[in-house]
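Quick one - first record:
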Amino acid sequence: MIGALVHLGRNLRAGFVLAREGALSLVDPTALPPSGRVLLRLARVVERPGANREGRLAAALTRLGPSYVKFGQFLATRPDLIGMAAARDLESLQDRMAPFPQDEAIRVIEAELGRPVRELFAVFGEPVAAASIAQVHRATIRTPEGEREVAVKVVRPGVRGRFNRDLQAMRFAARTAERLVPDTRRLRLVEVVETLARSVTMEMDLRLEAAAMSEFAENTKEDADFRVPTLEWDLTSRGVLTSEWIDGIKLNRSEAIDAAGLDRVALSRTVIQSFLRHAIRDGFFHADMHPGNLFVDAGGRLVAVDFGIAGRLGMKERRFLAEILIGFIRRDYRRVAQVHFEAGYVPPHHSVDDFAQAIRAIGEPIHQRRADEISMARVLTLLFEVTALFDMRTRTELVMLQKTMVVVEGVARGLDPHLDMWSTSEPVVRAWIERNLGPIGRVEDAGRGLWTLAGVIADLPEMAQRGERLLEKLERIADRGVGVAPEAIERAGDAATRRGVLTELAIWIIALSLLYTALFG
């Protein structure tokens, strides 16, 4: 009871801040029941006069603290839940917090790595960047080749407990909303909070981020125009991550890039093509590619940092994405429609021709514009809006991909405002399709199928033995019958008396339970 009151108090505070900053104006009252519309009007009474109409939700979540900032960043990837207006509002949300003191960072490092900082690092500097979960320090380590500069990421002290408290309050709010307002169940609020909890838990374990960096490095080791900082595994733990310090230029510093004599047009193409290679070729992409996480080094190579948020695509989703993009490039709208049906994303009771017509309404207008006016991210956004009309259930991984593509496209156009997204993307997409959907890919698919079949064949003897044992049990049951204890019959009779119309169902449940016990008990 006390816990519920604490959660209620935290949620009331959060609701007051949201109302005060004007964030509740983003809620569509027509989608609420009458009681909800009344509560919304009452809540908006406390709205602060002159509240900023843009970024109001982002401002409210920033006031509420790190957990809510992270929650807002997560919701920005789910316009299917909160609507496009709220998602756009959250795109401005910046995960920037005041740094915690240097001595606290030192205590965390020494507790995690088990040695004094002076032994671990030749130099350990002040924090250079701070976010809701961790902050980064510049340091120097000693190696046999000499001293080398590194970036040391340190988890905030107490952050796990604070996030856990806020997540418990969010869980309470989600369960209460689904219980009191049944219409909210379609939003799967409890599932959303649990997804956030898993994401944050993984992000607070820096060993998992290090593993993501290692996987990215392995995937891209042959790429001449992209690289990942080198990890220092001996100086990495759950709360500390140490990697190579990148002396590069952030991609939003166009003047500095020009001054260094680097080709911005070529770099913009690298940004797009690298992202598509990661997503389509590798099925593993950096899902937080804002300019602060992207650098260009002295050799003109793109370098990414901060791998705390990453997305994965299975082979089915990669094929889906590749064929969607190539279909729009070639104006083959029927093929785009068929891909949706083949993937099982659109229910089969809809018409492929009707769906192709809806997709044409997206594709044709873009071919009436100049290449530098066409936004691939905008096309995918419109595509998801249209597919909702055909009962396509939102795929979380595809929504994350689309939101990341919005950011990536913005970074690339900042370098080259006249970037032709389609001609830049086409070589990467075409190469993947030719490799994976052509003769070589079909042979490999056949090989994987044969390997799976061989595994099934190898399991056949055991499956046959299990089947034989099951048949023997069924024969014994047929000979002896299924005994029902008197107590069970009495309980069934009492239930029948109390429930009336559920009599037959109760008896069947008891009988089936006893049958299951006889077979598998």
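second record:
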Amino acid sequence: MAPKAKPERPWKEVAEEAQVYRDSTISTLHPPAPKIPTELPKNVLSIPQKLLHPQVVSITDLPPEQLLSLLSTGQLSALHVTTAYLQRAAVAQGLVNCLTELLATQALERAKELDAYFQEHQEPIGPLHGLPISVKEHVGFEGLRCTTGYISHWDNVPKEDAHILQVLRKAGAVFHCRTTIPQTMMHLETDSNLYGVTNNPYNSNLSAGGSSGGEGALLALHGSCLGIGSDVGGSIRSPAANCGVYGIKPTAFRIPTDGWGYIMAGADTVESVLGPMSVSLSGLKLFMKTVIDSQPWLTEPALLPFPWRSFVLPKDRPLRIGVLWDDRIVRPHPPITRALKTVADRLQEQGIEIVDFKPYLHEEAWAIIASLYFTDGGEADGEAINSSGEPWRPLSEWIITQNACVKKLDVGEVTYWLEEREAYRKEYALHWNELGVDAVLCPVGPGVAPKHNTAKYWWYTSQWNLLDYPSVAFPVTKVDKQIDKWVGDPKSLSEHDTYNRELWDPEEFDGLPVSLQLIGRRFEDEKILAILEHITEQINLPFEQFP
């Protein structure tokens, strides 16, 4: 084996450069962003309102659909909205460490262009006219670094914008900031040696989720109202759930992915997707419909060429929702089960049929997807880490070096696991047919936002990546330590179940968002959003107010 080459620069020097650069993009703001207090409480959600001008707060507290209404009628200018979001994003960064870069110069120039267009034509340039959108760091911008969480990738600079950015810009979007990601992109946590750890705005001792954790934390603090995340095992839904916002993992090949940075060898064995995260459910639909209406398949041939479709609820029968209470491997923590039961009971009261949706070989599903995540045995990721001399983050070690399913596969072994994937997909389709449900309601994870470096159970989200089923995460309620208690002492289902039970901490988790996800079959993205819109209205979701 050849001796390991010495890195050209010490990794800490690169990390310092990254953070100095990030801070310099914030320091260009005029007026300057408010200074963050030295001493912060664990819950920082109320601090932006105390630091920012009331006008900034009033603008940034609006959901995207209301903002667009005001922008498209000239009641708000793109410049005012962009300036407000730049201020609030800068404050969010100081509170939870969620940004890699503030795009102040580009964003303000774009806003001025849009205002000039509106003044001349008296109409918006497109459906997203003037709307600030935040972007996960690994989505490539022309001329800006794209690290995908690695020190060794610090000098990677795309030569053109990712396709999704081109589509959204043409629709009138303003990109105002880029958000943090973890080393390897394969954590349900957001931490890297470049930028450190992104904290949960509800409790700094807990995870914002990953790998789109910068987006989740920023949205919770209203430093953005709509953002771009990505998902290969839960990376949109985990941070959405942890931070009490909305996020959808679309079916693959509907939303463009050309031009993102992604190291994972053999990634096509598990379809990775880009998708929206938002402070509102309407924001998800707005994003999806705008992108698909642009016919992106005309320039990205891998995408499937069918338009956004309206879904009409059945009129001749009740809506039928399956509830997956647990996967028979890990029981969810008490607040997750309470949320499931409350939603199911209230849906039944509204005449919606509730069916127990039994899990089908979910342990086998993890064996398949975990074998397909790193078909090179993790060599490419290991090289990306080791070549700079940066240390492995705990969850990088866990998913690659401590994962028994990660092995270097030859052609025959890859073929075997792909055949297993397709066989499992067929069996699950038959299982779904037998139960005859319109959608499935289930946990996003085995608990609420966990303590740092403990998110080691992906199966409630990765299950749907393996099947390529669309799934949307949404907030329901909050943890209440007075009522969320284990009932009885049931026998442990597995080692994973034992580990998860040990993570339960009612004092630390009190007040955290409790979220669920709604699942549809492949290409039923429109259907699950329509069903969630319907049940949101029927039972008045979420049950508590979220910032």
